[in-house]
Amino acid sequence: MEITWINYLVGMLVSLAAWFVFLWAIRDGQFRETEETARRMLENEVSEEGADGTEKRA
């Protein structure tokens, strides 16, 4: 029966730690502008090929 209480306490401590990490991430700005990051990933810079065959970025 003692192991049940130990498991309960460990579970509560892990849950509390996860909650504090989540709050830290929100305060640190980890969840800001998630849509902009996805759009930026999909944007490709238009590249032009030079006269010598090398690629030049615009």
UniProtKB/TrEMBL annotation:
It comes from the Bacteria. Keywords: Membrane, Transmembrane, Transmembrane helix. The chain crosses the membrane at residues 6-26. InterPro entries: Cyt_oxidase_maturation_cbb3. This is Cbb3-type cytochrome oxidase assembly protein. It comes from Candidatus Manganitrophus noduliformans.
